[in-house]
Amino acid sequence: MSLKSFDKFCERMILAEPGSEKEIYDERQKQIRTRLTVEALTVFGAMSMLAVMINETAFTWCEGCFPIMVLCAALSYGWWVIRNAVKGSLFGVSGKGVKFTAILILIESPIYEILLLPDERENFSFIKNGKLTTRAVVMFSMLLMIVFAIVTLVLYSRKKRNEAADK
Asked: pTM for the complete prediction?
């Protein structure tokens, strides 16, 4: 029995259990994903620390710290998606977990966008008093999340198409 057929055998055995929707990764993928997750969290911490420090001391470019943190989180998620896609550890055997997360982001992000829309009484502006507004930065961050979720779904469909061509 080859290693690939043994992996398929294990996949069928695990996924055949009722209620089992776990994503299956090989050991190499687990190690790479863990390392890249720590890397993305480090990037998030460094980026948010630097951005907030610049905003609070040198050059106030945003109204508050919350939108800066949301922007850094969106950029870190993009960093994580791109790095995992390059290393080949973005998807497990079925890829359903990452696909579900991307679809969830696509559903939730427009809801946040709608909640951030201004009232009829309020004028929406990107810049107020020489600073980016909270709404503008958070809306841009949600758009980034949508873009990275679409990238994830495109990569998922490409993976499925390549698997179908291999069979």
From this structure: 0.80
Report d(CA 30, CA 24) in Å as an integer: 9
Nearest to 151 by CA among 92, 68, 74: 74
Say which residue, 147 or 130, is predicted with more confidence.
Answer: 147
Q: What is the pLDDT of residues 140-153, one digit of tens each?
A: 999 999 999 999 99
Nearest residue to 77 via CA among 129, 10, 144, 26:
144
Residue 54 CB burial class (10 angstroms; 0-12, 13-18, ≥19): middle
The alpha-carbon radius of gyration of the chain (Å, integer) is: 20
C-alpha–C-alpha distance, residues 165 and 167, integer Å: 5
Q: How are beta strands 131-132 and 127-128 bridged, if at all?
A: antiparallel
